[in-house]
C-alpha cells in the first residue's frame, strides 16, 4: 500500500485533453457478430457504443493528441515539460511507447516512460508523477492514460467484447508550493486475486537448437471472470474512498464530482449510493466509450472540464480499479483554466 500523509503534495492540475478514434461500433452491430443484444448490454453495463482504432491511426497518435490538448490548455511551452508518463497496458512497443509521444510533442527536455497498472494505470501514473513534482526534482508533467483493448479482445467472446473500447486522455500537472491540488491518495495491489482478469502471455515454446527451446512472444486475448471483478470493485472502491475521506476529514457532501473508472454504470451507481452522492454529481460517459481501461478517468475529466460541468476549484473524488488486481483513490481540486 502507498499513501501520502498530509496535504503537502504541492501540485496543480492545469490542463487536460482527450482523443478517441472516429470509428463507432454500437451494440446492435456487435449483436450481428455474437449472441448479444442492445437491451442486455445497456441494462447490465450502461454501454451503448464504443470506439475502435482502425487502419491509419494508432494508440500513439491518440495519446499524443490528448497530451497536446492538455499542454495547450495549460499554455505550456513543450520544452518546459520535465516528465511524460504513459499509463497503458497496450503499448505499440513493449520497450515503451512514451518516448515516441515525447518526440511527437516536441518535449525534448522530458523523460518519458510507460507504466502498466491496467485500469488503475492513470491513477498510479498520476501519483507517480506527483512524487517527482512534490520532491522538487521536476516541475511539469504530462500524465496520459491510453489503451487500445480492441486489439486484445476476443471479438467472439460476448462476455468481454461488449465491454471495452479504445481511447486516450491526459492531464498537465505542475509543482506549486502554494497549492494542495492533490489532497491525498491511496493505492493498492493484490496479486493473489489477479487471476480473475488477465491479458496473459501464451505458453508456447518452440525449438531453438537441439536440447533448447525458447518461448514465443505472444499474448492470449483478455479473459475475465466478470462477476468476481464486479464484486471486487463494489467492495473495495467504497472502502478505499471512505478511508481517504476520513483521513482528510472530508465529508462526502463536500465532493463536487465522483469520477470513477468507467467500467459499468452499475458499479458507479453502487459506489455513489454508498456515499449518498446524487446522480448529477456522478460523472459518466461509458455509454459512448465503454471501458477504455487507463483512459477512462482522464477522458471523462476532459469531457466534463470542456463542457464546463467541472469548474476551477471543484473537489473531485476519484477511484480506479481493475486487473492486477489493483485499485486506488485520489482526492483533488481541479485548477485548470476552464
Ligand atoms: O476494467 C476492469 C474492471 N472490469 C469490470 O469492472 C467488469 C466487472 N463486471 C461486470 O461489469 C459484469 O460482471 C458484466 C457486465 C461483465 C457481466 O454482468 P453480470 O450481470 O455479472 O452477468 P453474468 O456474467 O452473471 O452473466 C449473466 C448471463 C449469463 O447467462 P446464464 O449463464 O445466466 O444463462 C451469461 O452467459 O448473461 C449472459 N451473458 C450475456 N448475454 C447476452 C454474458 N454476456 C452476455 C452478453 N449478451 N454480452
Automatic annotation (TrEMBL):
This is Beta-ketoacyl-[acyl-carrier-protein] synthase III. The last Arg residue of the ACP-binding site is essential for the weak association between ACP/AcpP and FabH. The lineage of its organism: Bacteria, Bacillati, Cyanobacteriota, Cyanophyceae, Synechococcales. It is found in: Cytoplasm. Its EC number is 2.3.1.180. GO terms for biological process: fatty acid biosynthetic process. HAMAP family: FabH. GO terms for molecular function: 3-oxoacyl-[acyl-carrier-protein] synthase activity; beta-ketoacyl-acyl-carrier-protein synthase III activity. Belongs to the thiolase-like superfamily. FabH family. The keyword Isomerase does not apply. GO terms for cellular component: cytoplasm. Keywords: Acyltransferase, Cytoplasm, Fatty acid biosynthesis, Fatty acid metabolism, Lipid biosynthesis, Lipid metabolism, Multifunctional enzyme, Transferase. Homodimer. Catalyzes the condensation reaction of fatty acid synthesis by the addition to an acyl acceptor of two carbons from malonyl-ACP. Catalyzes the first condensation reaction which initiates fatty acid synthesis and may therefore play a role in governing the total rate of fatty acid production. Possesses both acetoacetyl-ACP synthase and acetyl transacylase activities. Its substrate specificity determines the biosynthesis of branched-chain and/or straight-chain of fatty acids. The active site is at residues 119, 261, 291. It comes from the Bacteria. Residues 245-334 form the Beta-ketoacyl-[acyl-carrier-protein] synthase III C-terminal domain. Residues 113-191 form the Beta-ketoacyl-[acyl-carrier-protein] synthase III N-terminal domain. Residues 262-266 are annotated as: ACP-binding. It catalyses: 3-methylbutanoyl-CoA + malonyl-[ACP] + H(+) = 5-methyl-3-oxohexanoyl-[ACP] + CO2 + CoA; (2S)-2-methylbutanoyl-CoA + malonyl-[ACP] + H(+) = (4S)-4-methyl-3-oxohexanoyl-[ACP] + CO2 + CoA; malonyl-[ACP] + acetyl-CoA + H(+) = 3-oxobutanoyl-[ACP] + CO2 + CoA; 2-methylpropanoyl-CoA + malonyl-[ACP] + H(+) = 4-methyl-3-oxopentanoyl-[ACP] + CO2 + CoA. Pfam families: ACP_syn_III, ACP_syn_III_C.
